[in-house]
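Data card: per-record layout.
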Amino acid sequence: MKKTVFTLAAVAMAILFVFSMGGCAKAKATATAKANLAESLKVDTSTLKSADNQQLLAPSKDNRAVPTRPADPNALPETDPLHWYDMEWAGWNVTPTNIPKSPANGAIGKKVIMIVHGDHPWTTACILGAKKVADAYKWNFKALSPNWDKTVQDNLIDQAINEKPDMILLIPLDAKGAVQQARKINAAGIPLHMFNTLPDNAALNYSLGWTGPDDFGQFRLMARSWADELRKANPGAKSIGVAYVMHAPGGSPYFARAFGPISELATYAPEIKTLAKASPMPATFDANTTMQLVSDWLTKYGKDLKGICAADDSAQSLGIFQALEKAGRKDVIVIAAGNSKQGMDLVKAGKLFGITYQTAEGDGALSAQAAADWFNGKGYAMRKNLAQHVITKADVDGFYPPQW
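The structure for this 404-residue chain is written out next.
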């Protein structure tokens, strides 16, 4: 009997010891999390600079009100800005699904995997910008590239899920396909942040949020400057013909960098008419392919073609000016999405009229900072845009050296 009592007492003591140790471990973990959070909140990334000496995380000054969604945007003509509502304003009307709550235990020391869209000098700069923020928070950080292959990107997502990171940052290659990708990451219980190219709005139901360039907003801004310049060069003209060299089909830039200005000009400058729009195929970002496309337009439309808007200020822009030089045309006013070294050099030379400030480093950095803010328990906007600016010959010198 005494032995039994002694045994029961020993068991009780052991249980109490285990619970005590568990409580100590929990208290220690809580203290560590609080300390990490305190140190993380001291990190100041606002002083970081990109390679062009601009503020890496410059805040957007766009204060446009979000419009009310039409009952059926697709029923509206493509020249109506609201036709593009679900793409331009993606992220503002979502149904958060299984979104994890922030641990609020500090950003320092997290494991983060970034999955980009493909190999390109822009992407290299984007990853560099993200790494500047990652280094500030001492992350275990790596970036993976599918080199423009959606199937490979799907496989990289599976690989990333298996590594169980604290967060995945994703540039979706395909707006529609992003829904399945986001759902898979969400189902695995891994926080997801999407950036750079806007996915289908349904994909954002499964994402903490989205950051990146407001391509529609930027091109609406630039379209007005372009229209003013076209009017100045063609005073009193009742019809001014323009064409659009488009981005690779499928992603949001394909639509934003053509239909953004088209729908903006429909009301701002209705005399500006779209003569042609196409993506150079089979190589969208190839100077020779672009040169052939534009040469065909110049032959077909002749002097009626007064302006060209390009989705890319590097290879596409070089191809455009090769075609213009071959045709002996110096009267065509060209704008493009920027801002590469080639694009800025063309602006400085007086060839390109304007380019968007498309900060690659800032794009990557903003996604990383959004993740850090979430780890730190800060407010998390469903959508946050990069600062907008149109670079012209008047201020291009202030953006050297180029990021890529």
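Known properties of this structure: Residues 215-357 form a domain with the Rossmann fold fold (CATH 3.40.50.2300). The mean pLDDT is 92.

See the next section for split statistics.
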